[in-house]
Amino acid sequence: MSGPDPRGASLPHDGEVLDVHLAAEFEARDIEATMATMPEDPYLNHVPMMTGGIGRDAVRAFYERFFIPVWPEDIDVASVSRTEGQDRVVDELILSFTHDQRMDFLLPGVEPTGRSVSLPFVVVVGFEDGKVAYQHIYWDQASLLVQVGLLDPALMPATGAEQAAKVRDPRGVPCRELG
């Protein structure tokens, strides 16, 4: 919800709330600030791995144990596009980082490989009363596995960091040849 509230004050636009939420997660790495952007009953679903949480306590526990403290220091979140609708924002992002610590929400049980990762993400965020009510987060798990050395693209129909390069520069990176 954006625009004026009944008391005459202007409420933040959903995209602004999402920007505050993302900054709390990736820049400040502040669990309290992150949770302050969410209502009493949020949910979070990292679709490829089905990680996240349902309800405030589960989402907080997920952020505290498995998400906010495990992002590598060199994490870079680059916005590609944003689409805003009523009570919904869809962000297309590229996350780049060095896999230098365990990240069970992305790669359960995989020890750090030290490899660079550049991975497109799509985040669908729903809002209730000006807060982040839910997030559906999508990425290509095969591309991640290729980039950390756990999947050989010569043996499987998968690609690695070139996905992110093509998202960044769709006309400058050629399409994959078929046949």
What would you note in describing this structure?
By secondary structure, the protein is an alpha+beta fold. It has a single domain, classed as Nuclear Transport Factor 2, Chain: A (Roll). Helices cover 26% and strands 31% of the residues. The protein has five helices and eight strands; from the N terminus they run E-E-H-H-E-E-H-E-E-E-E-H-H. The protein has helices at residues 14-28, 31-36, 56-67, 141-147, 162-168, and strands at residues 3-4, 10-11, 43-46, 51-54, 76-85, 88-98, 116-128, 131-139. The strands form two sheets. The chain has a six-stranded mixed sheet. The chain has a two-stranded antiparallel sheet with strand order 1-2. The longest helix has 15 residues, at 14-28. The radius of gyration is 17 Å and the shape is globular. The termini are far apart.
List the defining traits of the structure above.
single chain; alpha+beta; globular; 179 residues; 31% strand; Nuclear Transport Factor 2, Chain: A; 6-stranded mixed sheet
Main sheet: strand order: 4-3-8-7-6-5
Tell me the count of domains.
1
Q: What's the rounded overall pLDDT mean?
A: 92
> Secondary-structure element order, as H and E?
EEHHEEHEEEEHH
Number of helical elements = 5
3D shape:
globular
Explain the layout of strands and helices:
Blueprint: E1 3-4, E2 10-11, H1 14-28, H2 31-36, E3 43-46, E4 51-54, H3 56-67, E5 76-85, E6 88-98, E7 116-128, E8 131-139, H4 141-147, H5 162-168
Parallel strand pairs: 3-8
Antiparallel strand pairs: 1-2, 3-4, 5-6, 6-7, 7-8
